[in-house]
Amino acid sequence: MSGTQLTVTLSGGGVDDARAVVRALEGAFGAPDEFPADENATVHTATFRAAGPDGPAPEGAAALSAPVTVTVQGSPEAVRRAGDTLSRAFTARPQGTASGDQEQERQLLLEP
User: Fold this and answer.
1) Cβ contacts of residue 80 below 8 Å, gap of 6+?
2) Nearest to 14 by CA among 63, 61, 64
3) Of 41, 48, 91, 93, which residue is most buried, by most CB within 10 angstroms?
């Protein structure tokens, strides 16, 4: 995994909630490889491959319809930026972290 790649896994809520979370991360990471699209999926993923403009979360991030569990995985810097961005955009509760040699994983519960 490159230093600027971030993988995001989302569960809970629906596809619109997953899209809202991914859009909130665009200011920090640029556009993802693909937006969540499957209406019937229970788990959604998105991968960001390049650092974005390091801007703030979009103003007036969309409200979530249900709690969403988000797991972000990547370099320590990417995981920190993602966590900070999501905490500014939504009500976020930390659910745990795991660290490896070169990457980290962090889980957050985003609440409506």
Assistant:
1) none
2) 64
3) 48
CB 29 within 8 A of CB 5: no
Residue 66 burial by CB count (10 A; 0-12/13-18/19+): exposed, middle or buried? exposed
Q: Identify the bridge partners of residue 16 per DSSP, sorted by sequence position.
A: none
Task: Decide: 34 and 9 in contact? Cβ < 8 Å.
Answer: no
Asked if 81 and 26 touch (Cβ cutoff 8 Å), the reply is: no
Q: How far apart are CA 112 and CA 93, in angstroms?
A: 12
